[in-house]
Write a structure and sequence with these properties.
Distance between the termini: 47 Å
Radius of gyration: 22 Å
CATH superfamily of the largest domain: FAD/NAD(P)-binding domain
Structural class: alpha+beta
CATH topology of the largest domain: FAD/NAD(P)-binding domain
Helix content: 10-25%
Number of domains: 3
Number of helices: 7
CATH architecture of the largest domain: 3-Layer(bba) Sandwich
Largest sheet: 5 strands, antiparallel
Strand content: 25-35%
Number of strands: 17
Length: about 300
Amino acid sequence: YHWTLTDTRKLEQQMAKAKTCFVIGAGFISLLTVSALIKVAPLNYTVVELEDQVMPQLLDATGGEALERGMREKGIEVILGDSVSAIEPSSHGSASQSDGDGTRHSALGTRHYTITLGSGKSFDADMIVCGTGVRPNVDFLSGSEVKLANGVVTNERQETNVADVYAAGDCAETHDFLSGERVVHAIWPTAIAYPGSLSWNVTELFGLASASVGEFRDRPGLEPIVFHNAAANIYRKLLLDGDHLVGAVVIGRAEHIQDLGVVQAMIRRKTDISKWKHMLGGERINYGMLAYETIKR
């Protein structure tokens, strides 16, 4: 698992001896880990994901396809719609020996595993990274007066139900800015974007800039405005509810996401963009003008 600095140190030790790496889960943490690893460790990587796309919690299907294409271009094998059913010690590898618990080691001290998937496929690996989701660490508050649900329940000012006790960041459960539902957005940009949680994620993965803000999946009542250059692996979708932006997803280069903060501001301010709709489908958008109009209002 890759949750702490200690986990990172363990990964550094293991990757120095490994030749193959199997990754369970294609969510944010798993892919961020692999994207960092491939820069320093030229291993053979395989990623398996239960859903039918990579990054299912942060990208729509087309955005997921664009990111998957970037992964495959880096030599990463991607398996979708499958899951791990068993992990067992393996005798594969040269000069392997047992350490007494059944796990095999090579002469270099590398462990070997056989991973079996629900589909029946099996893979051998020296190193396994598991990133199948996180949950708020709030068990220490059980039995206290602080109200808990999926996280620590807070209002729009991050106040809990106990006077002078606040919660913020990955542990806090607050109202989603758009839907009004109670949510935990366990990603750093969202954690600092209070009051009112608005899902907001920006990162660089496999040489691609990836970003999403607010809603990113199509649903009845929303109008998508899309620019897609498949050859260049550039994809942008803006989602409108009437004349107001409610979300966006972008895959491309750094310059394609650098002004997404303007989109976030327009969502928060509920800016009427009816007179600019015709400008939103091209490769380039005059975000400077939109920012000026948003602030002016």
